[in-house]
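hey so u asked for the seq, here:
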Amino acid sequence: MSKAEAHDKTQSFDTRVAHQVLLDGLDNIEAAMKEASIERKVEVGSVLWELGDRVKKVLDGIKSDVRKEAVKELGGTVGNTLLDGEDMGAAMVTIPSATLKIPKGTDIEGIKKALGSRFSFFFEEIVTHKPHKEFEGRVEQVGDALEQKILFDSVERQEMTPRVSFRRDRASRRSQTGSDDAAKQVNENALDDVLAKS
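ran it, structure tokens below
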């Protein structure tokens, strides 16, 4: 596609219509999922996952261009600027102050020795603690009941949320069970086709 064709296509893109179509589609999906089977939810989830990834890529490109324009407007200085869209949109861009950090591989111990007591004048020391991976087993081996209580009271169990990821190009179930003639299935159904069986 030439630059002229891409420009024409962009100019003919109606953001209000697209916005409403997307909102309506998401409303329909949300309603359909209330009574859908888990298989249908997985199928729709994989579609939304793929679309979300595509949206992020497009949005990242837009953000990059908006940042460049904001830097140009502010002349490379720290501050805020508001960029207006052609209709209802707007983007607030904040350019923060630069910060200093210690690069990986820096010989902090060497710097401490060189500066002595003046080290804390230039650097803040942040100390963090976390339970050892064998914490519970080690505490159970402690003979003092009071010490055990102190140790167990110092931590709390944090249940981890199961991670979910989707894909739209998964191998068929037959190939997963070892069938030689099973091939990878690529499903490119549109959202309305996915919802048709809800």
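The chain has two domains: 1-97, 100-155. The first helix runs from residue 3 to 11.
lmk if thats what u needed
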